[in-house]
Amino acid sequence: MERISAGPHHTAYKIGDLTVTSLRDGYVDMPVRRLRQPGDKPFDGDLPSQVPLFEGALRLSVNAFAIDDGEDITLIDTGSSNAWHPTMGFLPQALSEARIVVDRIRTVAFTHTHLDHIHGLVLPDGRDGFPQLSRLLVPRPELDMFRSVARLSRFHDRAEPSDPGQHLSASIEAVAATGHEIGHTGFRVTSRSETLLVWGDLVHVPSLQFERPEVAWEFDADQDQARATRLRILGLVADNGWCVAGAHLDSPGVGWVSRTGTSFRFEPL
Protein backbone atom coordinates (compact mmCIF):
# COMPACT_ATOMS: atom_id res chain seq x y z
CA MET A 1 0.00 0.00 0.00
CA GLU A 2 1.15 3.50 -0.81
CA ARG A 3 -0.07 6.72 0.77
CA ILE A 4 -1.26 9.16 -1.89
CA SER A 5 -2.82 12.03 0.08
CA ALA A 6 -3.39 13.14 3.66
CA GLY A 7 -4.93 15.91 5.76
CA PRO A 8 -6.18 16.46 9.31
CA HIS A 9 -9.24 14.26 8.74
CA HIS A 10 -8.22 11.82 6.01
CA THR A 11 -5.43 9.67 4.62
CA ALA A 12 -5.76 7.94 1.25
CA TYR A 13 -3.84 4.89 0.08
CA LYS A 14 -3.44 2.99 -3.17
CA ILE A 15 -3.96 -0.75 -2.88
CA GLY A 16 -3.68 -2.42 -6.26
CA ASP A 17 -6.31 -0.81 -8.47
CA LEU A 18 -8.28 0.56 -5.51
CA THR A 19 -8.13 3.71 -3.43
CA VAL A 20 -8.79 3.19 0.28
CA THR A 21 -9.33 6.32 2.36
CA SER A 22 -9.26 6.48 6.14
CA LEU A 23 -11.81 9.04 7.32
CA ARG A 24 -11.43 10.49 10.81
CA ASP A 25 -14.81 10.91 12.51
CA GLY A 26 -13.07 12.19 15.65
CA TYR A 27 -12.25 10.66 19.01
CA VAL A 28 -13.81 9.69 22.31
CA ASP A 29 -12.20 9.64 25.77
CA MET A 30 -13.09 6.61 27.89
CA PRO A 31 -12.26 5.68 31.48
CA VAL A 32 -9.53 3.12 32.12
CA ARG A 33 -12.11 0.93 33.90
CA ARG A 34 -13.49 -0.03 30.49
CA LEU A 35 -10.50 -2.38 30.15
CA ARG A 36 -11.27 -5.92 31.30
CA GLN A 37 -9.19 -8.92 32.31
CA PRO A 38 -10.47 -12.51 32.00
CA GLY A 39 -13.53 -13.07 34.15
CA ASP A 40 -14.81 -9.55 33.45
CA LYS A 41 -12.45 -8.21 36.10
CA PRO A 42 -11.40 -4.56 35.89
CA PHE A 43 -7.87 -4.02 34.69
CA ASP A 44 -5.59 -4.55 37.66
CA GLY A 45 -2.38 -2.64 38.23
CA ASP A 46 -0.73 0.30 36.61
CA LEU A 47 -0.97 0.79 32.88
CA PRO A 48 2.29 0.31 30.98
CA SER A 49 4.16 3.54 30.32
CA GLN A 50 3.47 3.36 26.59
CA VAL A 51 -0.30 3.78 27.11
CA PRO A 52 -1.08 7.51 26.84
CA LEU A 53 -3.75 9.06 29.05
CA PHE A 54 -5.59 12.34 28.48
CA GLU A 55 -6.67 13.78 31.82
CA GLY A 56 -6.73 10.21 33.12
CA ALA A 57 -8.75 8.80 30.21
CA LEU A 58 -8.02 6.54 27.26
CA ARG A 59 -8.43 8.34 23.92
CA LEU A 60 -9.92 6.22 21.14
CA SER A 61 -9.82 7.38 17.55
CA VAL A 62 -13.01 6.80 15.57
CA ASN A 63 -12.35 5.96 11.91
CA ALA A 64 -14.40 4.93 8.89
CA PHE A 65 -13.01 3.66 5.58
CA ALA A 66 -14.01 4.34 1.97
CA ILE A 67 -13.09 1.88 -0.79
CA ASP A 68 -13.14 3.32 -4.32
CA ASP A 69 -12.96 0.93 -7.28
CA GLY A 70 -13.14 3.73 -9.85
CA GLU A 71 -16.89 3.42 -10.36
CA ASP A 72 -18.60 3.31 -6.97
CA ILE A 73 -17.46 3.83 -3.42
CA THR A 74 -18.21 1.43 -0.58
CA LEU A 75 -18.13 2.99 2.88
CA ILE A 76 -17.32 0.81 5.88
CA ASP A 77 -19.01 2.39 8.92
CA THR A 78 -20.28 5.97 9.10
CA GLY A 79 -19.18 7.44 12.42
CA SER A 80 -21.52 8.90 15.02
CA SER A 81 -22.88 12.14 13.53
CA ASN A 82 -24.28 14.10 16.51
CA ALA A 83 -25.47 11.01 18.41
CA TRP A 84 -22.69 10.88 21.00
CA HIS A 85 -19.76 13.09 22.07
CA PRO A 86 -19.09 16.48 20.44
CA THR A 87 -15.53 15.34 19.71
CA MET A 88 -17.00 13.07 17.02
CA GLY A 89 -19.14 13.50 13.93
CA PHE A 90 -16.52 14.89 11.55
CA LEU A 91 -17.07 12.36 8.77
CA PRO A 92 -18.62 14.94 6.39
CA GLN A 93 -15.57 17.18 6.82
CA ALA A 94 -13.29 14.19 6.23
CA LEU A 95 -15.13 13.27 3.02
CA SER A 96 -14.91 16.86 1.77
CA GLU A 97 -11.21 17.09 2.63
CA ALA A 98 -10.57 13.81 0.77
CA ARG A 99 -12.55 15.14 -2.23
CA ILE A 100 -14.97 12.25 -2.05
CA VAL A 101 -18.33 13.16 -3.55
CA VAL A 102 -21.00 11.65 -1.30
CA ASP A 103 -23.24 10.86 -4.27
CA ARG A 104 -20.65 8.27 -5.35
CA ILE A 105 -21.18 6.31 -2.13
CA ARG A 106 -23.75 3.71 -3.17
CA THR A 107 -22.98 0.99 -0.60
CA VAL A 108 -22.61 1.35 3.17
CA ALA A 109 -21.59 -1.73 5.17
CA PHE A 110 -21.43 -1.85 8.96
CA THR A 111 -18.91 -3.84 10.96
CA HIS A 112 -21.49 -3.81 13.77
CA THR A 113 -24.31 -1.63 15.04
CA HIS A 114 -22.82 0.36 17.93
CA LEU A 115 -23.72 4.03 17.78
CA ASP A 116 -20.27 5.31 16.77
CA HIS A 117 -20.50 3.23 13.58
CA ILE A 118 -24.05 3.76 12.30
CA HIS A 119 -25.42 7.21 13.09
CA GLY A 120 -23.56 8.94 10.27
CA LEU A 121 -26.36 7.77 7.97
CA VAL A 122 -28.17 10.91 9.15
CA LEU A 123 -26.53 14.34 9.26
CA PRO A 124 -26.99 16.58 12.33
CA ASP A 125 -29.56 18.63 10.40
CA GLY A 126 -31.61 15.50 9.67
CA ARG A 127 -30.71 15.08 5.99
CA ASP A 128 -29.47 11.79 4.57
CA GLY A 129 -25.71 11.53 4.75
CA PHE A 130 -25.57 9.56 1.48
CA PRO A 131 -28.40 10.60 -0.86
CA GLN A 132 -27.60 8.00 -3.55
CA LEU A 133 -27.35 5.07 -1.17
CA SER A 134 -28.66 1.93 -2.87
CA ARG A 135 -27.38 -0.83 -0.58
CA LEU A 136 -27.16 -0.84 3.22
CA LEU A 137 -25.57 -3.94 4.70
CA VAL A 138 -25.95 -4.89 8.37
CA PRO A 139 -24.57 -8.08 9.96
CA ARG A 140 -27.46 -10.55 9.95
CA PRO A 141 -27.48 -11.21 13.73
CA GLU A 142 -27.75 -7.47 14.36
CA LEU A 143 -30.59 -6.55 12.02
CA ASP A 144 -33.09 -6.32 14.87
CA MET A 145 -30.65 -4.18 16.86
CA PHE A 146 -30.32 -1.81 13.92
CA ARG A 147 -34.08 -1.68 13.42
CA SER A 148 -34.57 -0.68 17.04
CA VAL A 149 -32.70 2.63 16.54
CA ALA A 150 -35.48 5.22 16.23
CA ARG A 151 -33.27 7.93 14.76
CA LEU A 152 -32.53 5.70 11.78
CA SER A 153 -36.13 4.55 11.20
CA ARG A 154 -36.15 5.67 7.55
CA PHE A 155 -33.43 3.07 6.88
CA HIS A 156 -34.95 0.13 8.76
CA ASP A 157 -36.66 -1.43 5.74
CA ARG A 158 -33.72 -0.67 3.45
CA ALA A 159 -31.23 -2.67 5.51
CA GLU A 160 -30.05 -5.99 4.04
CA PRO A 161 -28.28 -8.75 5.97
CA SER A 162 -24.61 -9.44 5.41
CA ASP A 163 -22.96 -12.77 6.18
CA PRO A 164 -19.34 -13.96 6.45
CA GLY A 165 -18.07 -15.06 3.07
CA GLN A 166 -20.39 -12.69 1.23
CA HIS A 167 -18.76 -10.67 -1.54
CA LEU A 168 -19.81 -7.03 -1.54
CA SER A 169 -17.90 -6.59 -4.81
CA ALA A 170 -15.13 -8.32 -6.70
CA SER A 171 -12.66 -6.82 -4.22
CA ILE A 172 -14.49 -6.87 -0.87
CA GLU A 173 -15.46 -9.94 1.18
CA ALA A 174 -17.13 -10.06 4.61
CA VAL A 175 -15.15 -11.93 7.29
CA ALA A 176 -16.47 -13.26 10.61
CA ALA A 177 -15.05 -11.39 13.63
CA THR A 178 -17.67 -12.04 16.32
CA GLY A 179 -17.14 -11.27 19.98
CA HIS A 180 -17.22 -7.52 20.32
CA GLU A 181 -20.79 -7.82 19.07
CA ILE A 182 -22.88 -10.81 18.02
CA GLY A 183 -22.47 -10.06 14.32
CA HIS A 184 -19.18 -8.17 14.38
CA THR A 185 -17.73 -8.38 10.88
CA GLY A 186 -14.50 -7.48 9.13
CA PHE A 187 -14.05 -6.80 5.44
CA ARG A 188 -11.16 -8.21 3.42
CA VAL A 189 -10.17 -5.91 0.57
CA THR A 190 -7.98 -7.45 -2.14
CA SER A 191 -6.51 -6.07 -5.37
CA ARG A 192 -3.46 -7.14 -7.38
CA SER A 193 -2.19 -9.51 -4.66
CA GLU A 194 -2.43 -6.84 -1.94
CA THR A 195 -4.79 -7.39 0.98
CA LEU A 196 -6.21 -5.06 3.62
CA LEU A 197 -8.47 -6.23 6.45
CA VAL A 198 -10.85 -3.57 7.75
CA TRP A 199 -11.47 -5.10 11.17
CA GLY A 200 -13.85 -2.77 12.99
CA ASP A 201 -13.45 -2.90 16.78
CA LEU A 202 -11.07 -5.83 17.07
CA VAL A 203 -8.70 -3.56 19.06
CA HIS A 204 -9.79 -0.57 21.14
CA VAL A 205 -6.54 0.45 22.85
CA PRO A 206 -3.69 -0.27 20.42
CA SER A 207 -0.97 0.84 22.84
CA LEU A 208 -1.99 -2.07 25.10
CA GLN A 209 -3.96 -4.78 23.30
CA PHE A 210 -1.36 -5.79 20.71
CA GLU A 211 1.11 -6.55 23.47
CA ARG A 212 -1.60 -7.97 25.75
CA PRO A 213 -4.40 -9.28 23.49
CA GLU A 214 -6.05 -10.99 26.47
CA VAL A 215 -7.21 -7.57 27.72
CA ALA A 216 -10.84 -7.09 26.66
CA TRP A 217 -13.24 -4.16 26.58
CA GLU A 218 -16.22 -3.66 28.86
CA PHE A 219 -18.56 -3.23 25.89
CA ASP A 220 -17.56 -6.53 24.27
CA ALA A 221 -20.78 -8.54 24.03
CA ASP A 222 -18.82 -11.74 24.73
CA GLN A 223 -15.41 -10.97 26.20
CA ASP A 224 -14.08 -14.53 25.92
CA GLN A 225 -15.10 -14.76 22.28
CA ALA A 226 -13.68 -11.29 21.59
CA ARG A 227 -10.32 -12.43 23.02
CA ALA A 228 -10.31 -15.59 20.93
CA THR A 229 -11.26 -13.68 17.79
CA ARG A 230 -8.58 -11.07 18.43
CA LEU A 231 -5.89 -13.73 18.79
CA ARG A 232 -7.10 -15.58 15.69
CA ILE A 233 -7.21 -12.53 13.46
CA LEU A 234 -3.96 -11.03 14.76
CA GLY A 235 -2.28 -14.30 13.87
CA LEU A 236 -4.00 -14.41 10.49
CA VAL A 237 -2.91 -10.94 9.40
CA ALA A 238 0.60 -11.28 10.84
CA ASP A 239 1.25 -14.65 9.20
CA ASN A 240 -0.16 -13.59 5.83
CA GLY A 241 1.37 -10.11 5.68
CA TRP A 242 -1.99 -8.37 5.32
CA CYS A 243 -2.36 -4.72 6.08
CA VAL A 244 -5.05 -3.79 8.62
CA ALA A 245 -7.41 -0.87 9.17
CA GLY A 246 -9.09 -0.37 12.54
CA ALA A 247 -11.97 1.80 13.68
CA HIS A 248 -10.15 2.61 16.94
CA LEU A 249 -6.52 2.40 15.92
CA ASP A 250 -4.87 5.79 16.23
CA SER A 251 -5.88 7.84 13.18
CA PRO A 252 -5.45 7.07 10.32
CA GLY A 253 -5.57 3.56 11.76
CA VAL A 254 -3.80 1.69 8.97
CA GLY A 255 -0.68 -0.45 9.33
CA TRP A 256 0.94 -3.86 9.70
CA VAL A 257 0.90 -6.48 12.45
CA SER A 258 3.87 -8.68 13.35
CA ARG A 259 4.41 -11.36 15.99
CA THR A 260 6.71 -10.74 18.94
CA GLY A 261 6.85 -14.05 20.80
CA THR A 262 3.40 -14.67 22.25
CA SER A 263 2.19 -11.12 21.61
CA PHE A 264 1.97 -8.79 18.63
CA ARG A 265 3.22 -5.43 17.44
CA PHE A 266 1.49 -2.81 15.31
CA GLU A 267 3.41 -0.56 12.93
CA PRO A 268 1.49 2.33 11.32
CA LEU A 269 1.82 2.49 7.58
From TrEMBL:
Domain Metallo-beta-lactamase: 61-248
Name used for this protein in its record: Metallo-beta-lactamase domain-containing protein
Superkingdom: Bacteria
Keywords recorded for this protein, A-Z: Hydrolase, Metal-binding, Zinc
Example of a GO MF term: metal ion binding
Family in the record: Belongs to the metallo-beta-lactamase superfamily.
Taxonomic lineage from the root: Bacteria, Pseudomonadati, Pseudomonadota, Alphaproteobacteria, Hyphomicrobiales
